[in-house]
Amino acid sequence: MSTRTIRRFFAPGIALTLFLAAGTNHAAAKPPQSPSSDDCLACHGDKSLTTQHGSRTVSLFVDGKKFSSSVHGPLACTACHADLEGKDLPHSTPLARVECGTCHTDEQKQHSHSLHGKAIARGDTLAPHCVDCHGNHDIVPVKDRNSAVAPLKVPFVCGKCHQEGTPVQTQRQIDQHNILENYSESIHGEALLKKGLIVAANCVSCHTAHNILPHTDPNSSINRRNIAATCTKCHAEIEEVHRKTIRGELWEKEAHVLPACVDCHQPHKVRNVYYAEGMADADCMRCHANEHLKAADGRTMFVSAAEIAASRHAHPRTQAVPVSCSQCHSEVNVSRVRPCETITHPVDCAKCHEDQGQQYQRSKHGQLLAAKDPNAPNCRDCHGTHRILDKRDPESRTFSTRVPELCGSCHREGQKAAIRYVGTQHEIIQHYQESIHGKGLLKSGLTVTATCTSCHTAHMVLPASDPQSTVNPKNVPTTCGACHHGIEEQFEQSVHSRLITKTDKALPVCNDCHSAHTIRRTDETGFMLDIMDKCGKCHAAIAKTYFDTYHGKVSRLGYTKTAKCYDCHGAHDILPVADPRSHLSRANVVATCQKCHTTATRRFAGYLTHATHHDPKKYPFLYWTFWGMTTLLVSTFVMGGMHTLLWLPRALQMRRELKAEEAQEEAERLNRAGIEDKSAGKDGNHAE
Amino acid sequence: MPSDLERKTPQPRSAATFDLRGPERKRLEREYVRFTRLQRALHACMIVSFISLATTGLTLKFSYTRWAGMVSRFLGGFQVAGFIHRTAAILMFGVFVTHLYSLLQLKRREHESWRSLLFGPDTMLPTPKDLHQFVATMKWFIGMGPRPQYGRWTYWEKFDYFAVFWGIAVIGSTGLTLWFPIFFTRFLPGPFINIATVIHSDEALLATGFIFTVHFFNTHLRPEKFPMDTTIFTGHMPLAELKRDKPEEYEALVASGRLEEHLEEPQPEIVVRTIRVFAWMALSIGFSIVVWIIYAMLFAYK
After folding, report:
1. Cβ <8 Å between A547 and B226
2. How far A575 CA lies from chain B's nearest CA (Å)?
3. CB contact under 8 A, A646 and B141
4. How does pLDDT run across B174-231, given as a tens digit for each residue?
5. Residue B266 covered by a domain
6. CB burial class (10 A; 0-12, 13-18, 19+) of residue A683?
7. Are A239 and A228 in contact (CB under 8 A)?
8. Is B99 a domain residue?
9. Residue B5 is assigned to a structural domain of this protein
10. Over the stretch A87-112, which tens digit does the pLDDT of each residue have?
């Protein structure tokens, strides 16, 4: 938009505004004047005018000359600083940020949809506003070589933020490194900066000026689908050339996987070389095929071509050709004898696997890595390096049956993750292997059975205390419900669901009854007998009285067929007894009893399943029966006991007398026997 | 009538037996028959069923002790224990009914009328004489009088006898309620099952505790009979003991001149030995149960 047009469009408008303002001012009691540009410059023309922004001293000087020669020169200050309208001068409060979009509607709209605009909306302090690129009072037309956004200056405008060491590059997630350096060495950068060819592509040629979007956005000018169109803005025929080199059939069959420009000509590093002659895998393998190749620290640098050929990257889903070495090991420089010597960063998988990368960064593993913890697992610790296989490949380290072993390499008792863990879960791997999930997966080989990653996720692993965690109590029903959907539906209708019961108290979720890693079949004796203690953790009093009744007592003896909590109350669909849908509501209770007592009647259902004789208020008849019986028992024992105790001394006396009598008898008998013996002896002698 | 006795005593079979030990010599003496074969059989059945009922029932009552679980598992689990309990209950009812039937037979055989059976000299019903003997016993206990001249049935024996009637009525009726709750709740409200549980369990505790302490002492552990009185098992009682323990009965028999009719050869050695083994087992199980009850009530009560 030229200066003239602006003036033509807006001058009447401004005049009208001024006129109306004057009109209202007339009506007001105290008529304040709309300040003219001269009024403003009266103060802001002073070079020494400053203000404090925090600890910084900022100049408030406005160069009147420059402003009048700028594209906005004909406009009054208030045209942009609209909030100055009607203010007393000098104004005490700082002015609001100028809304360029009032006039530059389209640009403003693009900008607010762009990556930068969204960052502003998020409150990101590093995000650029209009003035950060265009300047303020000295804006000249783009075609003017003095413009801040003239082609020659664009790389530096963008580079203010997008170069190594800036807060944006270090604190925000920017996948590209050394952008400005690479660009200036690229064919585009050389043409623009060294040879002054101002039609050479600069940043905005590819990224657009205001509509800057991440490459993952389908509307972005640098999205895979759009990049060809973006490049062909200048390289009009180049796509035709490429089409010739690609077999026609492939073009028809796999149009979506054909390489995009950037697959070969890496962004920011575009060079005037053919990639086939440049960084082909063969170049890497010239050295790395050597089995004895070692790094300075002794690591083997051997790369097995066979491993790579068998890996997922040899036949990726997103492109027709195998992923080349330099797509992962970026930063190679083909102009060097050892192209890899320019590599400064490890492989960043998130370049392609962006979602996984973002999840990983938020995860506990990612947090540890960011904190430079030597134990933090990175991509390759789980996935390996060159021999990465699809997780559906039984040979893959991330194949479901091998996941427990993989996670166990750190989380098994005594290993590095288990050592630093302070929570309540122990022997995780062993317990999992004995659990229903572990048996299903490892013994029955059912690969859809829940493994570690099914509950904890693969990449966004967070501790249960984190509200974002899939194993946070709030999220557990949803996590389990991913497979046990029917149960989740029942549970979310029950009194235990936080959707139904609003309380500050902790409500139970799946793992409170089923445990986390020791989940058992619910028809196993152990589970059935433990459930009363599980319910009793919160329902202590009612669980105690259950054990005072027949059901509770026989369950204590290990009889599992007796009514347990869930047999009457329901398992996942527990509702208050007052709820007509409850298993224990008046309408349903007889049917509930009939599950075991097939001929149960309503009166039979009147049996008090939680009655205790300890509660005189709730169960007076039981209380008094018990104490009546106890009185009978105690008085009988007291009487019987007294009788016995009183008897004892007499009985002992009788025993003594009896013994004495017996002893005397015995003596007499022996005496008599002795006499008989003698006489018998005499008789015998006679006989002889 | 000592002379009578001497006459009936078998002579030593040879000269070699002249130094027979006291008890063995006594064994060869004819003994007084106190209990009939049926009474002994009923008592043995009663022991078996009572101990079974007590053991299985207490596992349930004291289910909170580790012991209960062990006993229950030893018996083959809760279901088997329940089966044993019910079978033993049927046996107990059987004993009870058989005893009532034997009373009928007794009346037909030896008594002209119920009156003579129920109010005769050998009645099991409490009489004023029992009250007098109770008072006299108390006096004897505190050294204010001689040992009363007890007859065929002492007052504590009568108490034990009627305790069984009371127990069968109370424990039996509540037990049936718990066995057939659906039938009984046709005419009783549901909470009666709860009440029946309390009564059944506490009355059973009373019965168990009483039998295994007071009854055991009164009959077996009394110092003059220690360690056990086998009369109820063999049916036989040495005449000297009858004379000492039940002087009134002895003298009445002597006076009527019919003592001879009530004497019999002693039980064979093997029978006595078997009986002792059985009685020892019953006694020790009984004592173990008492220890268990005390432990459960005092140290593990919930």
Report:
1. no
2. 23
3. yes
4. 999 999 999 999 999 999 999 999 999 999 999 999 999 999 988 888 887 878 889 9
5. yes
6. exposed
7. yes
8. yes
9. no
10. 777 777 778 888 888 889 998 999 98
